[in-house]
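User: Um, what's this?
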Amino acid sequence: MIAVAIYSADPVLRCGLEQLLRGDPAMTVVGVADNPSDILRLIDQNHVDAVLADSPPHAQLADWRTRHAETAFVVLIDGYNDDDGLDALHAGARAILSRLVERSEIVVAIKMVISGLAVLPRELLAALLNAGLDADETLDGNDAGRARLTPRELEVLAAMADGASNKAIARRL
């Protein structure tokens, strides 16, 4: 069983997420919170594998992650704003999903992060890759000691971002 805590300030969304997770036999909801500080209490008092958080403040997410590095954080954000997504990723989210995503995808994302994978929207992956290219362009051109991804490695990274398994990636390539 995957133990999940839920955080959302929106009572309707909070109720919907709780119903969704309670409907999956592989999940158990250990608690639901409408206040970010209550998530720490839930994690401290229970074994929590994952936290499903609706648009948590980035500083709060970073604090949760610092205190509970073994817990996977799945974050719902409004749309696929690159800045919000990148900020959530840097704050410690292992999965970033739009609030408008299909409900079944939330369950799959939780299962994926528990198995050690990251779940990112395709648009956010593009922003990450472009950010890497922009950083390369601003450097003085001295490539010594800096590794670059080959085109094949970028293909593998994109397949991983799509959630493909190792076997699926091998078949695809």
Summary: Confidence is low (pLDDT under 50) at residues 135-140.
